[in-house]
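[recover] target loaded
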């Protein structure tokens, strides 16, 4: 399906952000996917139900690729919940949670905001989960609350606090020793770069290892772009029977 794409300059640019408006939900979802790959995290905003169901496919793709994407959906008015009304942009049923159930399978956290009292806490929790788990999250905000002021919304952002990851140094030491023993006995070892390098933020460490040991380097299709392919020891793409001829 064809669509029109345009870019809109906004005040968000003063915060180091750029608002890109797209007239089709799939475009918005895949743009957020690409932005997350390039910049670390992406976000997209769509309409209730019609937009949410349309963007489900790129969000599912981001989930499978371990990409932190924040999917924000404009929900029904806060006073429509529990009213048993049949609204526009729905499947003709007084059930406002069909969309939520779809997103539960492809996001690591979901938040329904129909009351401003705990909105900031809910949003911060969703954003933290997104960044900690490197997975998409779903945030539905009642459309009548979007521009409503609240004392908890302050102009200056509050930094998010993440739990530190603790490494078992003894287990790591034993793992390194066991790996080194296997590699030192191998005749023609090859380092294969996989997509989890992005999640672990280990691309530079992988390149340092490759440079130090001089082993040949191959890359899996899902890891394309994570490792430069112009390195002297790069030998191609590993993909089972469809691999580059000398990578199979």
């Amino acid at each position: 399906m064809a669509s029109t794409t345009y870019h809109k300059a906004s005040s968000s640019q003063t915060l180091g952000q750029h608002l890109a408006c797209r007239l089709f939900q799939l475009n918005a979802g895949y743009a957020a996917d690409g932005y997350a790959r390039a910049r670390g995290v992406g976000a997209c905003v769509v309409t209730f139900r019609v937009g949410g169901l349309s963007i489900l496919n790129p969000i599912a793709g981001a989930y499978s690729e371990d990409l932190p994407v924040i999917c924000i959906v404009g929900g029904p008015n806060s006073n429509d919940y529990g009213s048993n009304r049949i609204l526009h942009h729905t499947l003709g049923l007084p059930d406002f949670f069909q969309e939520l159930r779809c997103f539960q399978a492809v996001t690591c956290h979901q938040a329904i905001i129909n009351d401003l009292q705990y909105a900031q806490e809910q949003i911060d929790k969703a954003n933290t989960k997104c960044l900690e788990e490197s997975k998409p999250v779903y945030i539905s905000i009642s459309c009548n609350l979007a521009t409503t002021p609240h004392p908890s919304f302050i102009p200056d952002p509050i930094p998010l606090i993440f739990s530190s990851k603790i490494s078992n140094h003894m287990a790591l030491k034993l793992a390194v020793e066991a790996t080194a023993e296997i590699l030192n006995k191998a005749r023609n070892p090859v380092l294969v770069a996989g997509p989890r390098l992005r999640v672990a933020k280990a691309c530079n460490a992988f390149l340092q290892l490759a440079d130090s040991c001089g082993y040949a380097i191959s890359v899996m299709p899902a890891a394309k772009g994570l490792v430069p392919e112009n390195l002297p020891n790069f030998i191609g793409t590993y993909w089972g029977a469809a691999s580059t001829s000398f990578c199979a």
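[recover] notes: The chain has a mean pLDDT of 84.
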